[in-house]
Amino acid sequence: MAALPRITLVATGGTIAGLAPAGAGAFEYQAGALAAEALLQALPQAGELARLGSETLFSLDSKDLEPTHWLRLIARLRDLLAQPEVDGIVVTHGTDTLEETACALDLCLPRGKPVILTAAMRPASAPGADGPLNLLQAIRAAATPELGACGPLVAAGDRLWRARDIGKRHTHAVDALGAFAEGPLGLFRGTALHLGASPTAAAALFSDALPERLPWVDILPGYAGAAPSLIDAAVADGAEGLVLALAGHGSVPERWLPALARAAARVPVVRASRIPAGGVWPQANFDDAAHGLIAAGSRSAWQARVLLSFGLARGLGKDALAGLFAT
Fold first, then answer.
1. Is 200 among the residues known to form the active site?
2. Could you report how far apart the first and last alpha carbons of the chain are, in Å?
3. Is there a domain that residue 205 lies in?
4. Is the pTM of this model over 0.90?
């Protein structure tokens, strides 16, 4: 009988590790209260799927994660992936900013071994907590070697998603996580994983040494009557790049054009949409070339911010950055 794969659980906090005091309401709990070892101790059946190790890197509500945490997490996961005794990794995370962390990991982690993120909408102490099954399913996915070529994936709500497809679509429903455009890569029935199409390999865009810091990128929302002074203020405050979360297909308000010209002369500006599906494409609905803007392509505004930060950290110019978004 073949030995079980060796999976390491890396905990970063979130609701999946949350505890509520006795008598508390459904939304009154402390995120990240449980360490990785405690999460596994509550799941003795996980030992039937893999030989498990665990460590707690952070114990944070994901609303409090910052780009510095991405860099620390990426560095630790790279170290673990390089160890022959590690066959796969599960990362527990909060749902609020999971899509941003997942995007950062997708950009920077080497392929070859599965890396599965998971989360929960109900704390571990809540009746009907969704975290235990999500964690079991993530372990099952991490123990599936063929998923290693796909880059980081997200297991939640009986579904397995590509990291770049995932988003939070509801403020409190148990099935809050899901994709806005592409369907899931696979479905779970209990801990059995049923994959759809054959997993597609996807190389990391940034596999070199990590930067010491990520340049700051602001997201500016487009809405009826939004003042162009927001653009000038962001640049004056030190933003090294801007992402515009605009209406429709990245529709730029006419009154923003002078401020955008000033900003684009100083920092890269990416035109994205506040709409979750469809993307924003070059020269569509706006003359990006004439105004010196970059279209976000298929990436959401939140993903565009992550990609722009890493691209700037590599010292890429505007043309090279535009090429990244076209990838």
1. no
2. 43
3. no
4. yes
- Backbone CA torsion sign across 104, 296, 251, 257: positive
Q: How far apart are CA 174 and CA 167, in angstroms?
A: 13
| Same-domain pairing of 63 and 184 | yes
Please identify which of the residues 8, 15, 95, 144 carries the catalytic annotation. Answer: 15
State whether residue 255 is helix, strand or coil.
helix
> Does the pLDDT of residue 253 top 70, yes or no?
yes
Same domain, 69 and 135: yes
Q: What six digits make up the tokens of 322?
A: 């535009």
Kindly give, in sequence order, each residue whose CB lies less than 8 Å from that of residue 242, ignoring residues fewer than 6 positions away: 217, 218, 219, 220, 231, 234, 235, 263, 267, 268, 269, 270
**26 pLDDT above the threshold of 70:** no
Q: Is the pLDDT of residue 227 over 70?
A: yes
Three state DSSP letters for 169-195 = CCCCCCCCEEECCCCCCEEEECCEEEE
- How far is residue 71 from each of residues 75, 100, 299, measured CA to CA in Å? 6, 12, 21
Q: Which residue, 53, 57, 79, 69, is CA-closest to 11?
A: 57
